[in-house]
Write a structure and sequence with these properties.
Involved in formation and maintenance of cell shape. Helices cover about 30% and strands about 30% of the residues. With about 280 residues, it is of the alpha+beta class. The longest helix is centred in the first third of the chain and has 29 residues, at about 35-60.
Length: about 280
């Protein structure tokens, strides 16, 4: 208290001057419309800048929740895409279809489920990703995994609330992919070198592949919906001993900063695999 009194006594003249100055400015602004307009404009500019800084800080601390909401919204929108449905069957139906049908009779082919990435490796020859979704949420083996920009891998095992994904950056990963131009199909692999690039083998030379061509998942991908982004052709190498190209593909997915992904269930994949497994070997 004594220090406050000493401070006031020492700066009494300055304090009185500042008070009178403020009082004078208040009178000037209140009784002069020109100064009122200037003051209001300056005050709005100042408060606007303060609000913007506050909102930027607040937005930063809510990024996690914002990303979660966006992932769920994207999942809902992806589930409504026409490519997830087949056309209504006009033939005679003699039994109920076990697959989900919408109100116009279309059969759902693919279901999307958002998931948070909780572990991700990119520096090994065989890399894996862990997602915070498991059997309690409907995850099953061989479900496709897709990122915001392109495909990521497939589920190889799951627990109650987590699943393990074989990344495309795995020497054992093989996915059927095609050139968007001409629909020429090959096998997508990884050579274990650069995590930004994949290898597409078995593309016929008649495709006349060029640098910059788009690569998508093919109709033969099975667990992956066809037409998903894989990447773009970065280099074309012609195999002199065969009639095929080996293409270097710039991956659309950036595996270094992957935060969210989508688990995709092909509702007819199990039936297709079971039928193919029963095909006689000698026929």
């Amino acid at each position: 208290m004594r220090n406050i009194v000493l401070f006031i006594r020492r700066f009494f003249t300055l304090v009185v001057f500042l008070i009178l100055q403020g009082f004078g400015l208040a009178i000037l602004v209140n009784y002069n419309k020109t100064y009122q307009a200037v003051f209001a404009s300056s005050a709005n500019e100042l408060t606007g800048r303060i609000d913007k800084q506050y909102n930027d800080v607040d937005y930063f601390f809510h990024l996690k929740e914002t990303n979660r909401q966006l992932a769920e919204e994207n999942s809902r929108l992806r589930n409504q895409l026409a490519s997830n449905f087949g056309d209504k069957d006009s033939s005679t139906v003699k039994h109920l279809d076990t697959l989900y049908r919408d109100t116009v009779g279309r059969v759902r082919l693919f279901t999307w489920l958002p998931a948070k990435v909780v572990n991700n490796a990119v520096n090994e020859e065989n890399n894996y990703i862990t997602l915070h979704r498991g059997t309690n949420q409907g995850v099953t083996k061989d479900m496709a995994v897709v990122g915001p920009d392109g495909i990521v891998g497939r589920v190889i095992m799951s627990s109650a609330n987590f699943c393990r994904v074989m990344s495309l950056l795995n020497r054992n990963s093989k996915v059927s992919a095609m050139l968007k131009k001409g629909f020429y199909t090959g096998i997508l692999e990884w050579d274990g070198a650069d995590p930004s690039y994949l290898t597409l083998r078995g593309i016929s030379k008649s495709a006349q592949a060029q640098k910059g061509d788009t690569v998508l998942t093919s109709n033969l991908s099975g667990n992956f919906p066809p037409g998903l982004m894989v990447g773009t052709v970065a280099a074309v190498q012609a195999d002199q001993a065969s009639n095929f190209y080996t293409l270097k593909i710039k991956s659309a997915t950036n595996f270094f900063n992957l935060q969210y992904a989508y688990l995709v269930q092909n509702e007819a994949w199990g039936e297709q695999k079971a039928l193919e497994a029963q095909t006689p070997k000698n026929q």
